[in-house]
Amino acid sequence: MLSQPSRKYRPTPVPDLPDRQWPSRRIEAAPVWLSTDLRDGNQALFEPMDTARKHRMFRMLCAIGFKEIEVAFPSASQTDFDFVRQLIEQRHIPDDVTIAVLTQARPHLVARTLESLQGARRAIVHLYIATSPTFRETVFGMNREEVTQQILAAVEQTRRHADAHPETEWVLEFSPETFNATEPEFARDLCDAVVDRWGGTPEQPVIINLPATVEMATPNVYADQIEWMHRHLAHRDRIVLSVHPHNDRGTAVAAAELALMAGADRVEGCLFGQGERTGNVDLITLALNLYTQGIDPQLDFGDIDAIARVCTECSQLPISPRHPYVGDLVYTAFSGSHQDAIKKGFAARDPDAPWSIPYLPIDPADLGRTYDAVIRVNSQSGKGGIAYLLETAYGLRLPRRIQIEFAGVVQQAMDRQHQAGQSAEMSAAQLMALFEATYLAPTTAITLVESRLATAADGVTQTVKATWEAGGARFERQGSGNGPIAAFLDALDLPVRVQWYEESAMTQGSDARASAFVGLVTDDGRYSAQGAGIDANIVSASFQAIISALNRMDAFRVADPAMAFEAAAH
Ligand SMILES: CC(=O)SCCNC(=O)CCNC(=O)[C@H](O)C(C)(C)COP(=O)(O)OP(=O)(O)OC[C@H]1O[C@@H](n2cnc3c(N)ncnc32)[C@H](O)[C@@H]1OP(=O)(O)O
Ligand SMILES: CC(C)C(=O)C(=O)O
Ligand SMILES: [Mg+2]
Prior knowledge:
Helix content is 40%, strand content 19%. With 570 residues, it is α/β, with parallel strands linked by helices. The chain folds into 4 domains: 284 residues, TIM Barrel; 32 residues, no CATH class; 64 residues; 122 residues, Alpha-isopropylmalate synthase LeuA, regulatory domain (Double Stranded RNA Binding Domain, 2-Layer Sandwich), CATH 3.30.160. α6 runs parallel beside α7, α13 crosses α14 and α14 packs across α15. The mean pLDDT is 95.
């Protein structure tokens, strides 16, 4: 790269607009949308779409709700010409949809383009000519006047054809290609001349489309250019002001949004930002940006994955997993603090209140996505994500103390997986298996064989007759207390006490199960452990949780468990 890029590159000139209004405006309604997936998108593919793929894309664009669709560059190829003919002759165009076709301002190409529209109910004829100094001088070898005459001749040719074919409702669209690199006064004069020559009226306005053919400046500069035109065009009331941003600097969406604030009525672009080079502006992002501000975009992306599938199959191009609103990973949090916040957000969610879940700017369900992938666990994850997966997949609600402890267990398992060159991610099923190995069967040193709970004659005291095995010996004892857990501990007759206890239902109905969690500490305070139990019966679950905690307590792991019980009995 150059140490002094200013020798090679010049900053883009900024229009003189000190009293610009757009910064304090807001977008309050959806613009008119035009999809150019079948033209600008199509012309930028390795392999332009065949007729079948074009039909598939057209049907989908109609289903999404586009009312204006640029379907072809009919003079470019027989495929494009035939596609337009098929749409018209086979009546594929819904009554509320208008097709558009693009052509250079050259007489034989205009003629072929008009021929393709024979019999259309309504059609937009889109004429373009590049207007910037570089194009005038280098590409065309024309001065301003010659460029003007070239486009006006094409407008007149189209006008004559339109007058001769009143069975079609004709709409003229003009694009000064490279508008954003054109002197504003020249662009304005040219557009005024086109509107005059066509005879645009407030009832039948001309679409003046101002492209950022190659994005060259920050979006505010484009907004200034659009506002300048909006305020200086002679016949604003006879014009639908349209924008056509490309994404060379990666800011096409911002440019389109600021352009709408600056006075544009209409936006041309492609789904997922397909199109020349870095693409046209992404209409899905634009529309869903409106949606998340509470504005109806008038386009339906309720099954975004199906739309993505059709687009990738038609274009043969992938969609980035980070693509706004649709990428595979855009509703997924791996990192611990994000997962924690999302989990808390879902827990506190009021379905009647406005959406405000941390890290999720839109409800994935609105786009047909599920919450399944919202949280995925890898080495960057913490307790929140682990707990979320176990709760959503198994209804297992871990108490905070268990969450903290189990997150450490998961982290160690993840490190082992990583060192063994295995996947760095853990599914809900893998987490559950690890939970079971950690808490439900940590060792078989002590196993509960049977327990019977009864209420004593006083009607208050609980008694438990428990049978368990430890270190190969079988024990059977009875205990009593003011509750089942106290009675069970009394039966075990060990120097331990309960520090904390929590239980919750995992499922409801006939297959209902409950989970119980307990923290035990030895009377001398030297050893402590947490345990868990899952059972159809909550009392059995709590007894298993106690056995689980004993099995996980170092005092019982290092000693011979049978000795511990013998010792406790004497
Ligand atoms: C920014 C955009 O996306 S614009 C749309 C671009 N899309 C396409 O080009 C796809 C379809 N295009 C094609 O199939 C072909 O270019 C055709 C059929 C239109 C024309 O093909 P050709 O006649 O072989 O010309 P070619 O493709 O080389 O285009 C360059 C010629 O068009 C002229 N030209 C380019 N744009 C325009 C225009 N808008 N109006 C008038 N003439 C133009 C150039 O000056 C050049 O003329 P020259 O050959 O006399 O120097
Ligand atoms: C033909 C015009 C509208 C175009 O695609 C562009 O300038 O990018
Ligand atoms: Mg373009």
